[in-house]
Amino acid sequence: MRTILIMGPGGSGRTTVAAATALTAARAGTRTLLLGTGPEDSLGTVLGVATGPSPVTVEANLTVWRPDPDRGFRDGLASLQDRASSALDLLGATRLDPEELTPLPGAEELALLRALRDAALAEAHDLLVVDLPPAPRALALLALPEELRRYLRRLLPPERQAARALRPVLGRLAGIPMPTEALYETTARWDLELAAAEAVIADRDTTVRLVAEPGPAGADAVRTAALGLALCGLAVDLVAANRALPEDVPADSWLAGLVAQQRKALAEWQGTYDVHPVPHLGRDPRGTDDLLALAAPGARPAAAPPEWPVADTLATDGVLVWHIPLPGAVREDLDLVRRGDELVIAAGPFRRVVPLPSALRRCTVDGAALREGRLSVRFTPDPRLWPGGR
């Protein structure tokens, strides 16, 4: 299944572009699921059909689904209380009633991740179009499954499960309670659910479509989003230049300045991305006729994800070089930390902990350089770990 993640800054019109993209694909005969977020039914407003927690068929080949984070949060917490009933009773805790629960921050993101997983497992559609939250939250959401799985592995390493039979004995010897079977089972289930969501995001058939108005603010937003996406290893399908003004504006018109800014932003984007101008209709798009008038591109061949190759220059320079694409990164805002078999990369407002390739785990970091949007990290073989003869 192809997945197109629609992302852009708040107010850029990404919901409209997401709806137009899904509608165009559906009209071309592709079975399409449009996935929305947020408590407001902005997708329903654009499409002219109310959407909600149950999938709604808008027309042939087009289904819209807006998961309810409240329901998912209540069901999840109620299930957690049931599994932890013995511990809660021991502590004398009073259980929370599902009707009194209100979702905590992050419930919307978790609901969307579950929906991504469920849509992929259902295999009922050929194309999934996702209207993501505004860019900063969307980038954090895309990185969430990998981060949560890393936390789970650090807090409860899977290899410790091998000592299940010894836990009661160890508990008596240590004098402290040991993790229960239910805790490991819950952790394993969470890891599987997160892995399924991560697989959808990292799939080669998943691409990101950036939406921004062609202007100074939009250009800044695209540069920042492109850096965050590259650090996540995600490919940009195209840049949808939304609300593009016509070029034939008279020179003495008040729109001439906006058109000049538009040309500058489009020229910058066209040097790097496939750019698709989405015309300004002179009004807020409403209904399928307006969405089709936007001429948004539907499904296309998936863009290749950015590669992080390791270059072997041992014969000439005595080092291995890991090349990491970071378009738009600034040297002053870049930081690297080697921690065990992981490399912590901070670029601007973004941060990611990535496992080192196997060959680099037997090396020490020898330096790094940033040139033309590519970070090159040099590794020198550690004589204590490197096999002889190299």
Features:
single chain; 390 residues; alpha/beta; Rossmann fold; 2 domains; 8-stranded mixed β-sheet; 15 strands; globular
CATH architecture assignment of the largest domain: 3-Layer(aba) Sandwich
Order of secondary-structure elements = EHEHEEHHHEHHHEHEHEHEEEEEEE
Provide the gyration radius in Å.
25 Å
Helix content: 25-40%
Total strands: the figure is 15
3D structure, described in words:
This protein is α/β, with parallel strands linked by helices. The protein has two domains: about 1-70 and about 105-295, P-loop containing nucleotide triphosphate hydrolases (Rossmann fold, 3-Layer(aba) Sandwich), CATH 3.40.50.300; about 310-380, Immunoglobulin-like, CATH 2.60.40.790. The protein is about 40% helix and about 25% strand. It has an eight-stranded mixed beta sheet, with helices on both faces. Strands 9-10-15-14 form a four-stranded antiparallel beta sheet, with no helix packed on it. A three-stranded antiparallel beta sheet has the order 11-12-13, with helices on one face. The longest helix has 22 residues, at about 180-200. The protein is globular and about 70 Å long.
Fold blueprint:
Layout: E1 2-7, H1 14-27, E2 32-35, H2 42-47, E3 56-59, E4 62-65, H3 69-83, H4 85-91, H5 107-122, E5 127-131, H6 135-155, H7 167-174, H8 181-202, E6 206-212, H9 216-232, E7 236-244, H10 256-270, E8 275-279, H11 287-293, E9 310-313, E10 319-325, E11 334-339, E12 342-347, E13 350-355, E14 363-371, E15 374-381
Parallel strand pairs: 1-5, 1-6, 2-4, 2-5, 6-7, 7-8
Antiparallel strand pairs: 3-4, 9-10, 10-15, 11-12, 12-13, 14-15
